[in-house]
């Protein structure tokens, strides 16, 4: 049995990827802090990057933190969108990539929310990309014109600037595609995942809930899956740990030679069956207890022997006819 569901695995992978990108975002946004600069012939220390700043230096530093704030907001939007996509959709490799456009027609509220999410993600990526481009320009002027130290300044500026460029390019292109095609695309899988069907858990929730609207569909999608299974148990009177067996006494009349066994006599198993009947009367006749039934394989007859009346045998053939015989004990002398 799997420890985590597929949705949970996707959320864990998303969290790991976001955590791994945090360091790159800080390095890429705070260029005026992490790029080596010249302070009186020496590389500026971390504290010097915040002390005795010129007006332009203060402006660039503020823009660095504004860009960082924009990235933090972008990741918050990405997180909500990614969890929403995982809860609302699945990837079915047996269906074509564009199957969602057909499947989602039965869920108009989900389609409306998908459009809202795609538009919001697109806007955030465009806004953050614009801020980041301006951030690179302002920071380049600061470190290359005012505080250039040596080649390490240039290489660090280029290296740090490229840390998040790939993310922004992919985010802008994929968000534009998702917005134009009304598709559900994950940005945080190892490779972009195109969800093409409605999530099976969401189908169950929507099938049982009433009054689904645009206003509450978001809450329905994001709420945890809670499937209640009602099991109806019919109670048996008495102690349930005790198995009650109904034993019907089978009387055998040895005076009647036409007793028939119900059912197909050929289906009588080769076994030993014991059944208690009425107690012996005073003269020891008229009843048989502890009957042993066995099959005579040579004649294909059924032999009923009485262990109480040892001198009596009842021979019954396959058709149900019976015959009573007296058995003479062997002479031991």
What does this protein structure show overall?
The chain has 2 domains: 6-222, no CATH class; 265-326, no CATH class. A 4-stranded antiparallel β-sheet has the order 7-8-9-10, with no helix packed on it. The two termini are 73 Å apart. The protein contains 9 helices and 10 strands. The protein has helices at residues 6-29, 31-34, 55-88, 100-103, 108-146, 151-161, 165-181, 200-208, 217-222, and strands spanning 38-39, 42-43, 89-90, 184-186, 193-195, 197-198, 292-296, 301-305, 312-316, 322-326. The protein is α+β, with helices and mostly antiparallel strands.
Order of helices and strands: HHEEHEHHHHEEEHHEEEE
The low-pLDDT segments are: 227-237, 242-247, 254-259, 267-308
- Rg, rounded, reads 43 Å
Helix content: 40-55%
Q: Strand order across the biggest sheet?
A: 7-8-9-10
What general form does the structure show?
elongated
Strand proportion, as a percent range, falls in: 5-15%
**Most strands sheet:** 4 strands, antiparallel
Mean pLDDT: 74
Characterize this entry briefly.
This protein is an alpha+beta fold and 333 residues long. It has helices at residues 6-29, 31-34, 55-88, 100-103, 108-146, 151-161, 165-181, 200-208, 217-222; strands at residues 38-39, 42-43, 89-90, 184-186, 193-195, 197-198, 292-296, 301-305, 312-316, 322-326. 44% of the residues lie in helices and 10% in strands.
